[in-house]
User: Which sequence fits this backbone?
C-alpha cells in the first residue's frame, strides 16, 4: 500500500507544494516584521522546508510511488505533470542541495539586506526545478523552466552593490532570455509537426511527420539548445563561468548543482518520451538521430570545460569550468542511448542520474567551501588559498574530499559514480565516449589537485586571518563531505533506484 | 568480520586522531594503533586457511557480499586472507605502530594531521592486502596514495613539493596503465565471469576461458594484459628503470613516512605482481622469464651501485631498497616453491629491515641534523646504542645468518638455482648474488666512516644518545628481524602452503 493509494492524486506533487508554501511562508515571516529580519528563523524555515520536501520525496520513492508494481506513473492535470520514480529521484537532488544552500546562506547573508527574499527565491527556484522534473508536456516544461530561471536571475544579481554580481546577473538573464526564445520556437515547430504538446502524444504524432522531418529536426535542435543553456553545455555555456563567478557563492552552488540537474531531468524525459530514438531515427529523409548530437555535445563539453578549467587562476572560475566538464559527463546518459539498447538504455541513463546525485553533494560542498573563504575575505585565486589548511584543517579536509571526488579518485563517491557511468556507456557500445570521459577525468586531477596543493602544501603567501567560524557553512560543508564519502559504500541503493526509474522511461 | 573490524577501527582511530589537539595526537595515535596490532595478532592466532586464496583454497576470515549490482559484473565486498597476505597484514600493523612511535621526536608541527594520515594510510594498506575483489582492491590501492602525498608534501624536506607531485603522478599513471591491463583481461573473459572477484577471474583464466578481444588473439591479449599490469606494478616496486621517483620521495619524506614507504608501500607492488601477474597468467609469465629476470638483476646490481655512489645515508638506504626488491622479482620469476615463497618472505623481511634502517638514519638525523656521510665520524662514541642497532640492522641487510634477510635471500637463491623457467637462470642468479657483495661494501663503507673512527662532527648540535622512545622501535624491529631469522617457519610454512598451488599451475612440479 503506497501512501498515495489512500490520498488524492494531486498529493503526489507534495514535494513541490511544500517548497512553494515554504517560499510563501518566508515572505509572510518577512512581511510581519520587515525591519528586523530574523536570519536564523528564515534560514531554519527554508532548511526545514527543503528537508520536508526531500523527506516526502524519499518516502514516496521508498514506497514505490509511480513505479510499475504500484500502478505506474501518476499522471495529473491532463497529463501535464507526471509523478514517477524519476521525478522523485531528481526532487531528492534539488531538495538536498537546497537544504545545504539554505543552511550555508545563514552565515553568508548575516550582514546583507533582503534575507527573507533571498530564501524565498531559493525556494521558488527549487519549486520550479521540482516541476521541471515532473513536466510531461512541453508547455509545463517551458513554464516550470521559467519558474526556475527567473528567481535564479535575481539570485545571481543579489549582491546589488557588487559590480561582478550585477554583471553576472545581466549576462545570465540575457542569454537565458535568448535561449528561452529559441526553446519556445522549438516547441512551436514540434507542435506544428505533431499537433501536440503532451510528451507521449508528441511521440504518437511523430508517425505523421515523414513529410516534415526538416521542421521536426529544427525543432528538436532548438529544444536541445534550451537544455544546453540550462545545463551549461556547449554551445550555450558562455554564461556559466561569469554567472558562477559573479554570483554569491551559495547561489553558484545552487545553480551549478540543482539547476543543472533540473535541466538534465527535463532533457532526459523529453528526449526519451517525446522523441523516442527508434521512431525519430527511422523517419524518412534520414530521420533525426539526436543521440549523435548529444555524443558530439558530450565530447566537446567535457573537453572544453576541462581544458578551460586547467588554465584558470581563480578557484571559483575553475570550479565553474569544471562544472561545464561535468555537464559533459552527464550528457553521456543521453548520448549512449541506442535504438535497440533495451536494458542498457535504462542503465546508462540511470548511471547519469546517479552521477548527478553524487555531483549534487560534492559540487555544492566545493562551492560552499568557496563561500566560506569569501566570508573570511581571503581572496579567490589559488595563491590566496595557500596554507589554508594550517588555519582550518577540518574545512580543508572537506574541500580535499570534494576535489578528489570531483576528479574521480577512488576513495570517494565521485569515483564509483563515474565508474558506473563509463561502464554503462561501454555496455551500450560507446566505449570511445567512455574513453574520452576517462581521459578527461584523469586530466582533471591536475587542476583539482592544485587547490589541494595550495591549501596543504604551500606556505601562506600572506598572513591569513580567519575571523569568524561560520557555523551554518561548516554544517553544510561537513554534511556534503560526509555525503560524498558515504556515497561510495552506499552507492548500491542509489544506482539501483536510478536505473530502475530510468528504465521506466523506455 | 574481524577484517572489517580491523579496517573500521583503524579508520576511526584516524578520524579521532585528526581532530585531537596536537599535544595529545602522538600518544593517542600510538595507543590507538595498538588495537590493529592486537587485531592482526589475533587473526594470526586464529588463522585457519589452506591453499591459495585465488586458486580455490580455503580463505580465512572471508566475507563475500554483493556491494554493487551494475550490468554484467557485480561488484562484491570480498575480503579474506591466505598465507601470502596474512604476514603482510601483520607487518603493516606492527610497522605502523613503530613508525608512529618514531615520529614523536621529528614531527613537531600539525601533529594531529600527521598521525591521522598515518592511521588512514594503515587502514587503506590493510584493505589492499585483504581485498579479494578487484574493485574494492583498487579503491584501497589508490586510496593509499592520498595520505602519502600529504605526508611527503607537508612534512617533507626542502624539495618536498617536487617529490610529492612526482610520487603522485608516477604512481597514479602506473595505476591507470595497470587498470587498463586488467580490464582488458576482463573483457577477454567475456561472459565466463559474473563479477570482478579475483578468485573467480583467476579460476576462469586457468580454465582457459580467455578469448580474443578487439582483434587480438587470446594469447596476445594475455601478453598485452601481462605487460600493462607488470609495468603498472613495476613502478610501485620499483624496478629499474622505473625507480627514479623513489629516491626523491624517500629523501624528502619525513622518517616515519619513509619507513612506511619502504616497509609496506613497496610491497604493494610485489604483492600485486604475485597475485595478478604470476598467479593469473603463469604461462605468460614464463614466456617473459628472460626480460623479467633481466630487470630483476639490473635492479639488484644497478640499485646497489647507485647506493655505493651516495653520500647521504638516507639515499644509501633508499637505493638499497631498489636492490632488495630486485631479489623479490628474481624469486617470483623463478617459479619454484623456494623462489616464490622466498620472495614473499623477503617482502616481510625487507619491510622490517628497511624500516629499521630508515628509523636508525632518522634517529641519527634527529640528533645531528645532517645525513651526509662526510659531515660526521665516530658517532658510536656519543650514541652507542643507536650505533649498535644500526650496525646490527646493516648486518641484517647484508644477509648475516640468523637474521631475517639471510633467510629470505637464502630461500630466493635456492629457489632461483632450482628454477626451470629457462636454462640461463643460474647465470642470472649468480649475477644477482654479486649484489650481496656490493651491499656489504656500501654498508660497511658508510658505517666505517660515520660511526667509527675518531669523533668529528661539522655542526653546532650537541651529540647525545637518543631518547628511549626513539630507540625502542629500533630495538623491537631488531628483535623481530632476529626472531624471523632464527625461526622463519613462523611465516614460511604458511607462505609455502599458499604458494604451492601457484606453482602447480605454472608446471613447476
Assistant:
Amino acid at each position: 500500500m503506497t501512501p498515495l493509494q489512500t490520498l488524492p492524486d494531486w498529493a503526489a506533487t507534495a514535494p513541490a507544494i511544500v517548497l512553494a508554501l515554504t517560499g510563501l511562508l518566508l515572505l509572510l515571516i518577512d512581511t510581519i516584521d520587515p525591519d528586523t529580519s530574523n536570519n536564523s528563523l528564515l534560514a531554519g524555515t527554508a532548511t526545514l522546508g527543503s528537508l520536508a520536501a526531500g523527506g516526502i520525496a524519499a518516502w514516496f520513492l521508498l514506497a514505490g510511488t509511480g513505479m510499475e508494481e504500484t500502478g505506474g506513473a501518476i499522471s495529473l492535470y491532463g497529463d501535464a505533470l507526471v509523478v514517477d520514480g524519476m521525478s522523485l529521484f531528481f526532487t531528492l537532488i534539488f531538495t538536498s542541495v537546497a537544504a545545504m544552500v539554505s543552511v550555508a546562506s545563514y552565515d553568508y547573508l548575516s550582514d546583507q539586506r533582503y534575507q527573507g527574499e533571498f530564501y524565498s527565491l531559493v525556494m521558488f527556484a527549487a519549486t520550479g526545478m521540482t516541476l521541471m522534473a515532473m513536466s510531461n508536456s512541453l508547455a509545463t516544461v517551458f513554464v516550470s523552466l521559467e519558474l526556475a530561471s527567473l528567481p535564479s536571475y535575481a539570485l545571481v544579481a543579489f549582491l546589488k552593490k557588487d559590480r561582478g554580481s550585477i554583471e553576472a546577473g545581466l549576462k545570465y538573464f540575457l542569454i537565458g532570455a535568448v535561449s528561452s526564445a529559441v526553446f519556445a520556437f522549438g516547441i512551436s515547430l514540434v507542435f506544428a509537426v505533431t499537433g501536440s504538446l503532451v510528451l507521449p502524444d508528441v511521440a504518437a504524432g511523430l508517425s505523421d511527420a515523414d513529410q516534415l522531418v526538416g521542421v521536426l529536426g529544427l525543432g528538436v535542435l532548438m529544444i536541445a539548445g534550451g537544455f544546453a543553456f540550462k545545463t551549461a553545455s556547449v554551445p550555450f555555456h558562455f554564461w556559466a563561468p561569469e554567472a558562477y563567478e559573479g554570483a554569491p557563492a551559495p547561489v553558484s552552488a545552487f545553480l551549478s548543482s540543482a539547476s543543472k540537474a533540473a535541466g538534465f531531468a527535463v532533457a532526459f524525459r523529453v528526449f526519451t518520451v517525446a522523441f523516442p530514438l527508434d521512431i525519430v531515427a527511422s523517419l524518412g529523409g534520414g530521420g533525426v538521430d539526436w543521440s549523435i548530437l548529444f555524443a558530439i555535445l558530450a565530447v566537446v563539453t567535457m573537453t572544453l570545460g576541462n581544458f578551460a578549467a586547467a588554465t584558470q587562476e581563480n578557484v571559483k572560475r575553475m570550479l565553474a569550468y569544471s562544472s561545464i566538464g561535468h555537464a559533459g559527463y552527464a550528457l553521456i546518459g543521453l548520448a549512449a542511448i541506442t535504438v535497440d539498447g533495451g536494458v542498457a538504455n535504462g542503465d546508462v541513463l540511470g548511471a547519469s542520474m546517479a552521477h548527478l546525485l553524487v555531483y549534487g553533494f560534492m559540487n555544492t560542498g566545493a562551492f560552499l567551501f568557496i563561500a566560506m573563504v569569501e566570508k573570511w575575505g581571503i581572496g579567490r585565486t589559488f595563491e590566496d588559498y595557500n596554507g589554508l589548511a594550517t588555519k582550518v584543517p577540518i574545512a580543508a579536509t572537506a574541500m580535499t574530499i570534494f576535489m578528489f571526488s570531483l576528479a574521480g579518485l577512488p576513495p570517494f563517491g565521485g569515483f564509483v559514480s563515474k565508474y558506473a557511468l563509463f561502464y554503462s556507456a561501454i555496455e551500450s557500445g560507446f566505449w570511445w565516449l567512455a574513453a574520452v570521459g576517462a581521459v578527461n577525468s584523469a586530466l582533471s586531477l591536475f587542476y583539482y589537485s592544485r587547490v589541494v596543493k595550495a591549501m596543504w602544501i604551500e606556505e601562506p603567501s600572506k598572513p591569513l586571518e580567519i575571523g569568524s567560524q561560520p557555523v551554518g557553512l561548516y554544517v553544510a560543508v561537513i554534511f556534503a563531505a560526509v555525503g560524498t564519502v558515504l556515497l561510495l559504500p552506499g552507492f548500491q541503493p542509489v544506482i539501483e533506484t536510478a536505473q530502475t526509474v530510468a528504465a521506466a522511461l523506455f | 568480520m574481524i577484517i572489517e573490524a580491523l579496517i573500521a577501527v583503524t579508520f576511526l582511530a584516524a578520524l579521532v586522531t585528526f581532530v585531537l589537539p596536537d599535544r595529545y595526537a602522538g600518544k593517542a595515535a600510538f595507543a590507538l594503533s595498538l588495537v590493529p596490532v592486537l587485531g592482526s595478532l589475533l587473526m594470526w592466532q586464529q588463522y585457519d586457511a589452506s591453499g591459495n586464496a585465488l586458486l580455490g583454497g580455503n580463505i580465512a576470515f572471508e566475507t563475500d557480499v554483493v556491494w554493487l549490482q551494475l550490468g554484467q559484473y557485480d561488484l562484491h565486498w570480498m575480503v579474506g586472507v591466505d598465507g601470502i597476505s596474512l604476514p603482510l597484514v601483520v607487518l603493516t600493523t606492527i610497522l605502523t605502530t613503530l613508525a608512529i612511535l618514531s615520529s614523536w621526536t621529528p614531527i613537531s608541527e600539525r601533529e594531529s594531521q600527521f598521525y591521522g594520515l598515518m592511521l588512514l594510510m594503515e587502514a587503506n594498506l590493510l584493505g589492499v592486502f585483504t581485498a579479494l575483489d578487484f574493485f574494492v582492491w583498487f579503491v584501497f590501492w589508490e586510496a593509499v596514495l592520498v595520505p602519502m602525498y600529504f605526508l611527503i608534501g607537508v612534512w617533507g624536506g626542502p624539495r618536498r613539493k617536487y617529490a610529492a607531485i612526482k610520487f603522485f603522478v608516477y604512481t597514479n599513471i602506473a595505476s591507470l596503465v595497470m587498470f587498463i591491463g586488467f580490464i582488458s583481461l576482463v573483457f577477454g573473459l567475456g561472459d565466463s565471469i559474473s563479477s570482478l572477484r579475483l578468485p573467480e577471474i583467476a579460476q576462469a583464466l586457468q580454465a582457459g576461458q580467455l578469448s580474443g578481444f578487439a582483434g587480438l588473439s587470446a594469447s596476445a591479449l594475455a601478453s598485452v594484459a601481462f605487460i600493462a599490469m607488470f609495468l603498472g606494478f613495476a613502478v610501485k616496486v620499483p624496478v629499474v628503470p622505473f625507480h627514479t621517483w623513489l629516491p626523491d620521495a624517500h629523501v624528502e619524506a619525513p622518517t616515519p613516512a619513509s619507513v612506511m614507504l619502504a616497509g609496506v608501500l613497496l610491497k604493494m607492488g610485489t604483492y600485486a605482481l604475485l597475485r595478478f601477474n604470476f598467479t593469473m597468467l603463469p604461462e605468460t609469465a614464463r614466456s617473459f622469464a628472460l626480460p623479467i629476470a633481466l630487470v630483476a638483476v639490473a635492479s639488484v646490481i644497478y640499485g646497489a651501485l647507485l647506493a655505493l655512489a651516495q653520500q647521504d645515508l638516507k639515499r644509501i638506504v633508499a637505493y638499497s631498497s631498489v636492490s632488495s626488491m630486485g631479489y623479490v622479482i628474481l624469486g617470483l620469476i623463478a617459479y619454484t616453491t623456494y623462489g616464490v615463497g622466498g620472495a614473499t618472505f623477503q617482502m616481510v623481511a625487507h619491510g622490517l629491515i628497511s624500516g629499521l634502517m630508515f628509523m636508525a638514519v632518522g634517529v641519527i638525523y634527529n640528533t645531528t641534523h645532517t645525513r651526509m656521510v662526510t659531515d660526521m665520524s665516530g658517532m658510536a662514541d656519543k650514541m652507542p646504542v643507536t650505533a649498535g642497532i644500526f650496525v646490527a640492522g646493516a648486518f641484517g641487510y647484508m644477509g648475516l645468518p640468523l637474521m631475517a634477510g639471510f633467510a629470505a635471500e637464502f630461500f630466493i637463491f635456492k629457489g632461483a638455482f632450482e628454477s626451470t623457467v629457462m636454462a640461463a637462470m643460474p647465470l642470472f642468479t649468480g649475477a644477482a648474488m654479486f649484489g650481496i657483495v656490493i651491499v656489504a661494501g656500501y654498508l660497511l663503507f658508510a658505517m666505517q666512516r660515520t660511526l667509527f673512527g675518531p669523533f668529528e662532527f661539522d655542526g653546532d648540535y650537541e651529540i647525545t644518545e637518543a631518547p628511549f622512545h626513539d630507540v625502542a622501535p629500533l630495538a623491537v624491529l631488531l628483535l623481530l628481524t632476529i626472531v624471523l631469522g632464527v625461526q622463519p617457519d613462523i611465516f614460511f610454512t604458511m607462505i609455502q602452503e599458499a604458494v604451492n598451488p601457484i606453482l602447480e599451475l605454472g608446471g613447476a612440479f
User: Anything to note?
Assistant: Residues 337-368 of chain B form the longest helix (32 residues). The first strand of chain B starts at residue 60 and ends at 68. The mean pLDDT of chain B is 90. Chain B touches chain A through 31 residues (CB under 8 Å).
